[in-house]
Amino acid sequence: MLNVVLFGAPGSGKGTQSAKLIDEYGLYHISTGEVLRDHIKRGTELGKIADSYISKGNLIPDDLMIQILDDVFDKEANGKPGVVFDGFPRTIPQAEALEKLLAKRGTDLAAVIGLEVPEDELMNRMIQRGKETGRADDTPETIKNRLDVYHKQTHPLRAYYQEKGKYLPINGSGVVDEIFNDIAAGLEEKTGVKCRIH
Ligand code: ATP
Ligand code: MG
To answer: Which residue, by CA, sits nearest to atom 16 of ligand 1?
Structure first.
């Protein structure tokens, strides 16, 4: 399997670049944010719990999030050529759990693609997305907390994966297709895997 993590602050373009990765590499997309929003929309028990965290811009507790990911992986990802993890891991315990989960299934993580975007641009993108889509956590106050949570809990993963030699830094500002070209070139260099269109 070719398993990659798309890493970056909220609003860094993880969803957009995931869509391109699944098209061009035939990978399976697991977005923890989308999984949770779907539960909220359907009004499940899990959705109610998730909403109480997401609406404030906080993370879902690690134990619960890891359990959810484990379930989704078994239901959807087995037998696929690989997975794009979008929005997971967001903490060191989640990263450790992901490593175990993949090892248990005889596979591993090929690379962590880090979309790097300046803070003011992240803010503007999310405020714009909030206006266009009405996404409930894209409000100025919640955005501010999500960015704080990112710096405290998620950003340390950058150094964690750098030490493991898995981190692939990508400039996430600019034109979507050009950012994707940088990702494809970086992935080829790191893993030897070629994108369908290259
Ligand atoms: P992007 O804008 O790059 O798509 P995002 O950070 O704005 O990313 P999602 O990844 O969709 O948004 O996540 C939305 C919310 O879902 C998070 O703010 C958090 O509350 C919850 N969530 C998603 N993934 C996780 C996770 N791995 N651990 C804990 N909570 C999570
Ligand atoms: Mg997203």
So the answer is: 33
